[in-house]
Amino acid sequence: xxxxxxxxxxxxxxxxxxxxxxxxxxxxxxxxxxxxxxxxxxxxxxxxxxxxxxxxxxxxxxxxxxxxxxxxxxxxxxxxxxxxxxxxxxxxxxxxxxxxxxxxxxxxxxxxxxxx
Length: 116
Hints:
The chain has 116 residues and is an alpha+beta fold. Helix content is 29%, strand content 40%. It is elongated and about 85 Å long.
């Protein structure tokens, strides 16, 4: 009786299959861990109201692009990166993310800009 595979080949294929399964499992675990850390850093951990929009002015850099906005509300003055459309009278909030970064947000427009 003749074997269809040389002695040791079956063991090599089994070891390679086991290695592949373990490698794929470890890769999956690493991707899951990366996304769970990333999502926890992006999650909003605190939100506080900072009043209604009164006025906004925009600073431009040398290339005439908007680099920051100064937003005045009934509760204070805030400087944000870039520019976004504000509607006078809209309530704004400051959202703090898990990473510690803070954003000035207009919940009515579902838009936020990073605070400087």
